[in-house]
Design brief:
Length: about 200
């Protein structure tokens, strides 16, 4: 009954984040999808707590659920790098989205129809829409984790040129955030990056 869904949790531990491979990171040093999901979840929790401390109403349980589920379809699709999508032209993002939605539908079939299945399905739709404050926090955490991983790879000696385009495109998305917590953590991450490469 739950087998497909539960086994997907184990599979994401073995799936490398392919974007790093296309940026010439040694395969032995490439994080897994599960590594990334864990870091994203912790960052999302921190961002949510900072927003609450600033007086915003945030459903932190929802934030954590969104973060934990956000990359689970990659258990079936693997991690589809943005670099690969460039070869598909304007339809690249749409194809990735279609694949991940089909994978999610397959995974969710493993949960019998009822309240749990409906809740998980709603969470996945909410994450994809990026409209609620909770989903915005998780998307920001997802991007911040990518930047922090770039800082880590720079610390390990990978050249700036290898990761500069990824840093720039991800930074642009974070700089436009309306959330004060995101701006705060982005500035701290940018300082780490700058100090690391100077």
């Amino acid at each position: 009954m739950f087998l497909d869904f539960v086994s997907s949790i184990g599979r994401v531990k073995m799936i490398p984040r392919s974007g790093w491979i296309s940026h010439r990171i040694n395969l032995q040093e490439v994080e897994s999808v599960a590594d990334h999901s864990f870091s994203t979840t912790v960052l999302a929790m921190l961002l949510a707590d900072l927003e609450v401390a600033n007086g915003r109403r945030i459903n932190i349980e929802r934030v954590l659920r969104l973060a934990l589920l956000h990359d689970l379809p990659e258990a079936l699709t693997f991690d589809i790098s943005k670099t690969y999508l460039e070869y598909l032209g304007v339809r690249g993002e749409a194809i990735k989205s279609e694949l991940e939605q089909a994978a999610w539908k397959h995974l969710i079939k493993g949960i019998e129809k009822g309240a749990i299945r409906m809740r998980y399905d709603q969470l996945q739709s909410e994450f994809n829409a990026e409209q609620s404050i909770e989903s915005m926090i998780v998307h920001a955490a997802d991007r911040l984790d990518l930047l922090l991983q770039i800082v880590e790879y720079r610390r390990r000696g990978y050249p700036k040129e290898t990761l500069a385009d990824l840093w720039k495109s991800t930074s642009q998305k974070l700089r436009g955030s309306k959330l004060s917590s995101v701006k705060k953590l982005y500035k701290m991450t940018a300082r780490l990056y700058k100090n690391n490469i100077s």
